[in-house]
């Protein structure tokens, strides 16, 4: 992978790292790279462009649309919509390129550019590297009627996405009161609309984006407002999205946070009961709490672990043909209905399980008992030497002592001389003691 693209597209400080010029150049390069794959053959190329509610998204979307049109691509600008909505539309509209301008859960000053291939799938590393390599190259520009056209969608795209979401559940949400925190982001309209269309009584907070307040002390990264709103409104549950609504965390009727691991546990059992959980398998990352794996084992569901990041979850799901996977952060992928994590879809499916079973969320989520977890960051170390024999022996001894209800994980940082020591144990004292003891070994053995 080149220097521009990270694990989820190109991200950085808007108008400094991520500029209008960069957006235009990336759009042109993407059109050229994807065009060489034969996806444009036999028809005029088309693209869908959407964004979250950041002010910088306005000029970045304009630049992206301009770049695509200058390369002969017809563009539909769908405005503010969640990332999974753009992915869905990229697939259903049969377009060749999808583009999302968003920095997801990042602070408002950031923004990003993410490309989707035909069908609504993220590009692999090789294609992203090809796009980056062709930025600034000489090319023959289309002229006259061969230039692309730009059309602004006035709401039909959002309506189609909402209809798709509601169609994924087979039960009415009538009588279920749900509090929704939209993070003043991309789901501020379609999130509440989908839940209401499904029959729910919806209490909405943080759904007034002004271009500056996205993710600001709200949404899935700051669920405190939602926790208070659930209790105050008497809601059966609450759901919180992030800025581009590809994540969802929940809150039970008592205001207790329900994380992505617990949500995955509820949905895995729901799909298994419906005969829709492929090979009775759930895909998680190594950062999912051990309590999720133990709870799944108790119900006869197998777990497959991947590296951290939704792209690795997606890869494992595609290779194995699995139907459900996700991360503790609430980025949950349901392959039957989406090509990426979808927070609003997750909220609907979770609420549908509550409605169908008649069980409150705290009872459903309570089957996944989160084991105490301690994370210690150890800076100033040589992360390349994490295979040190003495350190490996210390880890093996700790894992043997913790037994089946414990786990040790060392994760080198991808960007700095830092190693993260994570320990799960039957008690918080065991987790704390073991994590700090191993952190001392890391310092002693890997110090720069």
- Give the uncertain stretches in residue-range form: none
Which word captures the global form?
Answer: globular
Number of strands: 19
Question: Which structural class should the secondary elements be placed in?
Answer: alpha/beta
**Mean residue pLDDT:** 94
Radius of gyration: 23 Å
Beta-strand content estimate:
15-25%
What is the first-to-last residue Cα distance?
Answer: 28 Å
Largest sheet: 7 strands, mixed
Number of helices: 14
Task: Explain this structure.
- The chain has 448 residues and is α/β, with parallel strands linked by helices.
- Strands 1, 2, 3, 4, 5, 6 and 7 form a 7-stranded mixed sheet that branches. A 5-stranded mixed sheet has the order 9-8-10-11-12, sandwiched between helices.
- Helix 5 packs across helix 6.
- The protein has 14 helices and 19 strands.
- Helix content is 37%, strand content 21%.
- A hairpin with a 5-residue loop joins strand 15 and strand 16 (332-334).
- The longest helix is centred in the C-terminal third of the chain and has 19 residues, at 428-446.
């Amino acid at each position: 992978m080149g220097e521009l693209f990270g694990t989820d597209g190109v991200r950085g400080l808007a108008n400094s790292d991520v500029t209008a010029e960069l957006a235009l150049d990336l759009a042109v390069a993407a059109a050229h790279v994807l065009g060489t794959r034969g996806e444009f053959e036999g028809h005029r190329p088309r693209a869908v462009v959407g964004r979250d509610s950041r002010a910088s998204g306005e000029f970045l979307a304009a630049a992206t649309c301009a770049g695509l049109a200058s390369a002969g691509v017809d563009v539909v600008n769908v405005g503010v919509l969640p990332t999974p909505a753009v992915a869905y539309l990229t697939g259903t509209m049969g377009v060749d390129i999808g583009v999302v301008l968003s920095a997801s859960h990042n602070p408002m000053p950031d923004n990003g550019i993410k490309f989707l291939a035909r069908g609504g799938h993220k590009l692999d590393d090789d294609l992203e590297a090809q796009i980056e390599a062709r930025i600034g190259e000489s090319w023959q520009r289309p002229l006259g009627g061969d230039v692309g056209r730009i059309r602004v969608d006035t709401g039909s795209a959002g309506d189609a996405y909402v209809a798709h979401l509601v169609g994924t559940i087979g039960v009415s949400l009538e009588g279920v009161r749900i509090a929704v925190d939209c993070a003043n982001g991309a789901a501020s309209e379609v999130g509440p609309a989908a839940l209401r269309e499904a029959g729910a009584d919806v209490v909405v907070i943080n759904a007034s984006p002004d271009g500056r307040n996205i993710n600001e002390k709200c949404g899935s990264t700051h669920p405190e407002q939602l926790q208070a709103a659930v209790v105050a409104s008497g809601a059966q549950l609450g759901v919180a999205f992030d800025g581009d609504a590809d994540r969802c965390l929940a809150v039970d009727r008592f205001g207790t946070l329900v994380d992505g691991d617990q949500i995955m546990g509820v949905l895995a059992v729901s799909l298994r009961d419906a005969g829709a959980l492929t090979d009775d398998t759930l895909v998680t990352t190594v950062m999912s709490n051990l309590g999720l794996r133990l709870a799944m084992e108790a119900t006869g569901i197998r777990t497959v672990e991947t590296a951290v990041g939704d792209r690795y979850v997606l890869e494992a799901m595609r290779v194995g043909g699995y139907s459900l996977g996700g991360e503790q952060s609430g980025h949950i992928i349901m392959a039957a209905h989406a090509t990426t994590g979808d927070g609003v879809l997750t909220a609907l499916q979770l609420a549908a399980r509550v409605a169908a079973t008649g069980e409150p969320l705290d009872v459903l989520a309570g089957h996944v008992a989160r084991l105490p977890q301690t994370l210690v960051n150890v800076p100033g170390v040589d992360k390349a030497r994490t295979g040190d024999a003495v350190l490996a022996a210390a880890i093996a001894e700790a894992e043997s002592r913790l037994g089946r209800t414990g786990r040790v994980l060392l994760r080198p940082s991808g960007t700095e001389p830092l190693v993260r020591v994570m320990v799960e144990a039957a008690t918080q004292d065991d987790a704390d003691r073991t994590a700090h003891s191993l952190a001392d070994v890391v310092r002693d053995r890997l110090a720069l």
